[in-house]
Amino acid sequence: MKNLPHDSDPSDEPMRYGMLGEDTSTTGEKLEKYTGEVGWIYLRSHFEAGALLYVDPSLKLTEVGQAFADDDADRVAEWRQGGDLVSPSQPHADYWEESGATFRALVVSPFVLIQPIES
């Protein structure tokens, strides 16, 4: 904030920053923005908490995230029934730990959606 004369009221100054919650991005844009590459070490605690979901590479990660954000239970159930969306088990976790796997990850609370990154 610039220096104001002593008789100026700071509330007369316009705010020059966005307030939390004023993000006008679409849900899809937010999902793309919050998708990133992470290693297994970061994901391990989410696996242990039961919040990790593996998304088959044939699906677009943000499309699955959009279904979660929209509470599209039918679509999510279809992916689960088809094996395209699964909760990883301990053998998966052990393999990923040993191989130092990396993933594209997207948090759609309370879940973390992951897809493998091929090396």
Counting H and I runs of at least 4 residues, what is the number of helices?
A: 5
Rounded Rg: 20 Å
Please provide the count of β strands. Answer: 5
The stretches of 5 or more residues where confidence is low (pLDDT under 50) are: 1-6, 8-20
* Major sheet size, sense and barrel closure: 5 strands, mixed
How would you describe the shape?
globular
Helix fraction bin: 25-40%
- H/E topology pattern: HEHEHHEHEE
Instruction: Report the structural category.
Output: alpha+beta
Strand content: 15-25%
Mean pLDDT: 83
Order of strands, main sheet, comes to 1-4-5-2-3
Distance between the termini: 48 Å
Q: What does this protein structure show overall?
A:
It is a single chain. With 119 residues, the protein is an alpha+beta fold. The protein has a domain at 48-119. It is built from five helices and five strands, in the order H-E-H-E-H-H-E-H-E-E. Strands 1-4-5-2-3 form a five-stranded mixed beta sheet. Helix 1 (27-33) crosses helix 3. The longest helix is centred in the middle third of the chain and has 10 residues, at 73-82. The radius of gyration is 20 Å and the shape is globular. It starts with 26 loop residues before the first helix and ends with a strand.
Summarize the structure.
The protein has a five-stranded mixed sheet. It is built from five helices and five strands. The protein has helices spanning about 25-35, 40-50, 60-70, 75-80, 90-100; strands at about 35-40, 50-55, 85, 100-110, 110-115.
